Amino acid sequence: MIDKINQLKAEVESLTAATHEKAEELRIKYLSKKGEITSLFNAFREVPNDQKRQVGQLLNELKEAATAKINELKESLENSASAGSETDLTRSADPILLGTRHPLSIVKNEIVDIFARIGFTIAEGPEVEDDWHVFGALNFPPEHPARDMQDTFFIEKDPDVLLRTHTSSVQSRVMLNQQPPIRVICPGRVYRNEAISYRAHCFFHQVEGLYIDKNVSFADLKQALLYFAKEMFGEDTKIRLRPSYFPFTEPSAEMDISCNLCHGEGCPFCKYTGWVEILGCGMVDPNVLEACGIDSKVYSGYAFGMGIERITNLKYQVKDLRMFSENDVRFLRQFESAN
């Protein structure tokens, strides 16, 4: 037994390993449950009593030596791999900076999260659409100016294929393929043929909402929008609804919130009115329900839509819409803490 221990000890001291796999093989060979050192421990019970103390001490020293040697081999291999990676001359000399989500994505996710708390799910649709889903199903008459090439990017004419001008096209798709109750929110990018300036762009982002069920009223719409305004802009936020017109809702309204800079007192941002417009809304026109195969005598609903850029401007006071799409990292880095 003592000769075998001394022999293994000599082997252990001379061990080498070129790879992690080889080092693991050595550990299994000597220290696993069926390893050579473990076998010696199993045979220890057969050692005469007068030799047990000496043999036991030698066995423990052998096990400690083997464990230390194999750990040393593994550590050496890890250090070699680390040293090799540090000498990679193809890496950039500039530090790699952490990125951040885009401010529009931050605000969109916040809007979606707020409406998710009151039961709205996300619905999405294609950005390249047809006339029926963008205009026809939503009660736009054939002569409506939104159908003119001066306002809309048409890809083909007859049949009409275009870039959607609003995410209301997603609402029409949902209504055509799903029976009430419907409670969806539709975020996405839209396109309009407008001159690019600090106030407008040829593409921007919207979030629209649709709720259809039995006995839905304008009071339900107002309550949902009041909840949204308070969650997004603060508990002290007030709203007001002004009569307006949209082809797909009747009655329709524009919604203002109390200015979150002056708290309704009046300032240059709100043009000294104390109010800032943020979205349009209304009760879904019965013609829209019927066009999408929903019985308007049984069901009613409301819809609303807002520009994400508009809400982002209100939250972060970004005065030029073009900054959202210029990809200037000096601008984007300001939102690192908003993640």
TrEMBL record:
Protein name: Phenylalanine--tRNA ligase alpha subunit
Binding site for Mg(2+): 250
Family the UniProt entry places it in: Belongs to the class-II aminoacyl-tRNA synthetase family. Phe-tRNA synthetase alpha subunit type 1 subfamily.
UniProt KW Cell inner membrane keyword: no
Gene: pheS
Cofactor field: Mg(2+)
Organism whose genome encodes this protein: Paludibacter jiangxiensis
Pfam families: Phe_tRNA-synt_N, tRNA-synt_2d
Domain named Aminoacyl-transfer RNA synthetases class-II family profile: residues: 107-334
Coiled-coil positions: none
Chief place of localization: cytoplasm
One of the record's GO cellular component terms: cytoplasm
Protein localization: Cytoplasm
Alphabetized GO MF terms: ATP binding; magnesium ion binding; phenylalanine-tRNA ligase activity; tRNA binding
Cofactor note: Binds 2 magnesium ions per tetramer.
Summary of subunit composition and partner proteins: Tetramer of two alpha and two beta subunits.
InterPro entries the UniProt entry points to: aa-tRNA-synth_II (IPR006195), aa-tRNA-synth_II/BPL/LPL (IPR045864), Phe-tRNA_ligase_II_N (IPR004188), Phe_tRNA_ligase_alpha1_bac (IPR022911), Phenylalanyl-tRNA_Synthase (IPR002319), tRNA-bd_arm (IPR010978)
Signal peptide boundaries: none
EC number: 6.1.1.20
UniProt keyword terms in alphabetical order: Aminoacyl-tRNA synthetase, ATP-binding, Cytoplasm, Ligase, Magnesium, Metal-binding, Nucleotide-binding, Protein biosynthesis
Catalytically driven reaction(s): tRNA(Phe) + L-phenylalanine + ATP = L-phenylalanyl-tRNA(Phe) + AMP + diphosphate + H(+)
Any single GO BP term: phenylalanyl-tRNA aminoacylation
Enzyme kind, highest EC tier: ligase
